[in-house]
Write a structure and sequence with these properties.
By secondary structure, this protein is an alpha/beta fold. It is built from 14 helices and 12 strands. The chain has one domain.
Length: 308
């Protein structure tokens, strides 16, 4: 019996312990607190009165004391008392509009029931008191601040996911800023504001026929909201796709050169901000040259070649 115990102990202490990447990252990360986040936000140009639309990755910031709530409270403190914080809180079955459209017959979005697929900070924001959430089956957005009703109240009536009368349209009207924390400039929904506003004047044939999704209004009524799925062939060459380093690099350099993109850091995360109105006007200028977030590799290379 004693020999069996000795054998087991020998195996236990001779076997190397394997820790996860998350464990090692947390071990070497510095603690990030609310005061540090506030300081970093101010350095990147976030000030009192700003309306902020935030895209984020909590894990990139480092070990944040208090987690996602600390990030949210820091932003609220910096932009108070007259600023607004807008956070994407999408609940999108199967991850894309095209995939969700196949479930439209059985799916009914209920903002009081459905959470979000977008990570820790949006999930924590949904639990914050005093927020307002827009009624939209694929692009539901939540807002906090004195203009929260104005930002979200007509989303389901707007006729598009991201155009006029949507939270992105309201962002432009309020001359708000887009803030990225631990994310690149690629997965930014605001780019779709341009195509939704331009409609048939946009230089790409983007959409399939609209699909009518059901949503549960706070009154209890079931309403329908039309959403246009993207053509898979066009969607495949979009800015955030893994094979589009060329387009991401071009746009990042272009935005920096034109003074639209301001870069910095929040904790250990790379961070950036852009003024929504300035970005919209610049995207229109690029569109006049045939450059959008869907421009093919060949067309982009040709544009760069002629510009040089």
């Amino acid at each position: 019996m004693l020999s069996v115990i000795r054998c087991k102990l020998s195996r236990l202490f001779s076997t190397p312990i394997i820790y996860s990447k998350r464990y090692w990252k947390r071990l070497i990360s510095r603690n990030v607190n609310k005061m540090m986040i506030c300081r970093d936000l101010e350095k990147i140009g976030i000030v009192a009165g700003d309306t902020i639309f935030m895209h984020s990755s909590l894990s990139r910031i480092g070990h944040v004391s208090g987690g996602a709530n600390t990030v949210i409270e820091a932003i609220k403190e910096v932009i108070s008392p007259s600023g607004n914080l807008i956070v994407p809180t999408y609940f999108m079955p199967s991850g894309t509009i095209y995939a969700a459209s196949r479930q439209a017959a059985t799916y009914c979005f209920d903002p009081s029931v459905h959470g979000t697929i977008l990570g820790a900070i949006p999930s924590a924001f949904l639990k914050h008191g005093g927020i307002k959430r827009s009624l939209h089956p694929t692009h539901s957005v939540s807002a906090y601040g004195p203009d929260d009703d104005f930002i979200v109240d007509r989303h389901h009536l707007a006729g598009s996911a991201c155009g006029i009368d949507t939270p992105w349209g309201r962002l432009v009207e309020l001359e708000g800023k887009i803030l990225g924390i631990g994310v690149s400039i690629a997965p930014v929904t605001f780019y779709h504001y341009l195509e939704d506003v331009e409609g048939d004047n946009f230089p790409e044939d983007l959409w399939l026929d609209p699909v009518h999704f059901k949503c549960k209004h706070r009154s209890g009524r079931i309403i329908t909201v039309p959403v246009k799925p993207y053509r898979p062939s066009v969607n495949a060459r979009r800015l955030e796709k893994s094979n589009r380093d060329d387009l991401r690099s071009f746009l990042q350099e272009d935005f920096l050169t034109n003074g639209i993109l301001k870069e910095g850091s929040i904790g250990e995360a790379d961070a950036w901000q852009m003024n929504s109105k300035e970005l919209y006007e610049h995207l229109k200028t690029l569109m006049s040259y045939g450059i959008t977030i869907y421009t093919s590799k060949e067309k982009l290379a040709s544009y760069i070649g002629h510009r040089v």
